[in-house]
Amino acid sequence: MKATLDFVEEVAVDVEIPFEAGIFVIDKPAGPTSFKMVSGVRRALGIKKVGHAGTLDPFATGLLIVCAGRPATRMISAMMDGQKEYLATLCLGVETETFDPEGAVVSRHSVAPLQAEQIEECLSLFRGEQLQVPPIYSALKHQGKPLYHYARQGISIVKAPRPVFIETLERTDGDHDLPGGEETQLSVRVVCSKGTYIRSLAADIGRSLGCGAYLTQLRRIKSGCFTLENSFPGAELLFPDARQRLLAKALSVDDLANLL
């Protein structure tokens, strides 16, 4: 049976099991927002104080750390400081207004054949310390409102470049040449500092290659000390026994303190 991620208020809550605080490593599926996943945890556990450590865009999948209960949410800032690791797929030859699948296509270009050495030379430009301009479609605030609030009204608020560090940027689709053509795919692994926008990195790589690009797929597989091993499948938040399933995967505040 195919489940949808339209959470309903009638999710069962087992009030007989006391719960005060915990940390959950969620494997977010594509589609729902990070806030939707937080809402699912809130309903399943019957607790109001729930937050996440690092947003994933709706189209993205993978590791989302959700903290429930005040003792856990107080530690969110500490959890956001570590490096992040992603698997990303770029579509070369196409640019969108949001640098991802959620935005309208703004340009298309035929991709010339690319030699493996040419691709590696391009990727090498983006390793190490970088100054990156945040995308105008982002949650960064300007005068109290997120940038995407202005962008959706046709107002482009360009923030100053911010320092980021890209430790690893490597292909995961082999070291072969790319034949070019329409919508050529390039897959990479990225290990980077917090605050790095993989969407912007994809767009910058496309510009450097001379054909443009946007991010078609993104999966976060690591954040600080957290990995997807033994993570909680986000789709299971729809199950009637979601509370019990979550509690079986919970990390205590003491567990987290030992990890950080």
In short:
The chain has 260 residues and is α+β, with helices and mostly antiparallel strands. Helix content is 23%, strand content 30%. The strands form 3 sheets. Strands 1, 2, 3, 4, 7, 10, 11, 12, 13 and 14 form a 10-stranded mixed beta sheet that branches. A two-stranded antiparallel ribbon has the order 5-6. Strands 8-9 form a two-stranded antiparallel ribbon.
Give the topology, please.
Blueprint: E1 22-28, H1 34-45, E2 50-52, E3 61-68, H2 70-73, H3 76-79, E4 84-92, E5 94-96, E6 105-108, H4 116-124, E7 128-132, E8 141-142, E9 145-146, H5 147-151, E10 162-171, E11 184-192, H6 198-209, E12 213-223, E13 226-227, E14 232-233, H7 242-248, H8 253-259
Parallel strand pairs: 1-14, 3-12
Antiparallel strand pairs: 1-3, 2-3, 4-11, 4-12, 5-6, 7-10, 8-9, 10-11, 12-13
How would you describe what is shown here?
By secondary structure, the protein is an alpha+beta fold. It folds into two domains: 22-81 and 224-259, Pseudouridine synthase (2-Layer Sandwich), CATH 3.30.2350.10; 84-220, Pseudouridine synthase. The protein has eight helices and 14 strands. It has helices spanning 34-45, 70-73, 76-79, 116-124, 147-151, 198-209, 242-248, 253-259; strands at residues 22-28, 50-52, 61-68, 84-92, 94-96, 105-108, 128-132, 141-142, 145-146, 162-171, 184-192, 213-223, 226-227, 232-233. The strands form three sheets. Strands 1, 2, 3, 4, 7, 10, 11, 12, 13 and 14 form a ten-stranded mixed beta sheet that branches. The chain has a two-stranded antiparallel sheet with strand order 5-6. Strand 5 and strand 6 form a beta hairpin. It is globular. The protein starts with 21 loop residues before the first strand and ends with a helix. Residues 1-15 have low confidence and may be disordered.
